[in-house]
Amino acid sequence: MKVDARGLSCPQPVLLAMQAMADAGSGIVEVLVDTEASRENVMRAAQSKGWQARATDLPEGGFRLELSR
Amino acid sequence: MQKQGNVFATTQGIVVVGAIIGVVAALLQKAGNPANMGICVACFGRDVAGALGLHRAEVVQYLRPEILGFVLGSLAAALLFREFKPSGGSAPVTRFVLGMIAMIGALVFLGCPWRVFLRLAGGDGNALFGLAGLVVGVWIGTLFFKAGFSLGRAQSQSVATGLVFPAVILGLLVLRLLFPPLVDQIQSGVLWYSVKGPGAARAPLFISLGAGLVIGFLAQRSRFCTMGAIRDLLLFRQMFLFSGVVALLVGAWVTNIVVDQFHPGFEGQPIAHTMGVWNFAGMVVAGLAFALAGGCPGRQLFLSGEGNTDAALFALGMIVGAAVSHNFGLASTPQGIGPHGVAAVVVGMVVLVLIGWFHLPRRHA
Question: How far apart are CA B103 and CA B282, in angstroms?
């Protein structure tokens, strides 16, 4: 499952990521964000739900977050 | 590449930042800022509007260096940590109007969310109504977000565009340096000053500016946001931002007790009125406006320092909202609400609900 939250302001990236994690239940959810704050917020939310979160830089700027459980 | 951690964006980090803001705010009052108003983005934005002559309420005219410091401190942090990312284009005019309405609502209460907590820390019981209103306003905002509310995506912008608002702020700082307050004069060069009232209560320039710069820097790093604190608690049961706000409250409260600025009660509180219903309603409007825009007034200034031009428009909307508030008799005074304060709350709420409604996802037939 993939969520593109780039360009969206708080709290939408976290809301979309939470929704995607709830829909997926387990496995891998990929979330794209474009700011450091969104990266921190989504990773914090994922970890609070028992998901692992890993961030990598996107070549065009922003981050690809891989949430897994 | 794995990103390095940001120590300020941890619970301990934001608690330290919140506590520093609380202590600094209380000490700014000791140094000369108005009582229970060490920092208030709404009140200070209103003072800035007055200093520029956008309204003619003579007791609230001062180009507050704290506001300038917030933006420039955040800009410095963003540049230093490579987080200066100019962006914009997410419903700009709507955000401008949200800024106006947020300011209008806040001036019915007489304070932004920051001042809600600083008033509480000073013992002003009327702020409890404001806090309740803030929570209800933000809660209404979370309902819109749960229903899919969005102002749309921002796009990246040029570095020059991202620097425009910080450059304006820098220009205002130059004006403040060129035209300092003169004894018993309401004008110094192009700037207006108060000779009495809250606008005349001011800490020395370099203390105010230094405090603003430090807070701007720390808040950019920690993402400190008073509206987000309540929103994340309601929406996600998340304590991160909320722990920062609690630290601000405790930091300011303890400092107030130490320096004898804690005076509990409802009557005769500084720059506050006792109309509970309107303290509540004003903050419902402001809280909802901040929620829909995605950040408290401080956070909007910090984001604008990062090059977020949508947040900059919100901030400009607040300045214009302050001017409208005073020119139209919407703002409260310590005696009570303004002659058109009730209309301001009603019209503001209607506009916010319409903005919320029209930015919900449409079902296509």
Answer: 10
Cα B122 to Cα B254: distance, rounded to the nearest angstrom: 10
Task: Please judge whether B236 and A45 are an interchain contact, meaning their C-beta atoms are less than 8 angstroms apart.
Answer: yes
- What pTM, to 2 d.p., does this model score? 0.96
Q: Which residues of B61-81 are buried (b: 16+ CB within 10 A; e: fewer)?
A: bbbbbbbbbbbbbbbbbbeeb
What's the gap in Å between the CA of A57 and the closest CA on chain B?
Answer: 6
The H helix count followed by the E strand count for chain A is: 2, 4
Residue of A nearest to B7 (CA): A40
Q: Is A57 on the interface with B (CB under 8 A)?
A: yes
Residue B281 sits at φ, ψ, to 5 deg, of: -65, -40
Q: Which two tokens stand for residue A23?
A: 């829909």
Bridge partners of A63, per DSSP, are A33, A57
d(CA A3, CA A47) in angstroms, rounded, equals 17
User: What pLDDT is recorded for position B364?
Assistant: 58
Interface ipTM: 0.94
Whole-number Cα distances in Å, B278 to A38, B120, B284, B340: 35, 17, 9, 12
Find the closest chain B residue to A18 by CA distance.
Answer: B236
Q: Both tokens of residue B242?
A: 């909320």
Q: What is the structure's pLDDT at B216?
A: 98
Q: Do B150 and A12 make contact, defined as CB atoms within 8 angstroms? A: yes
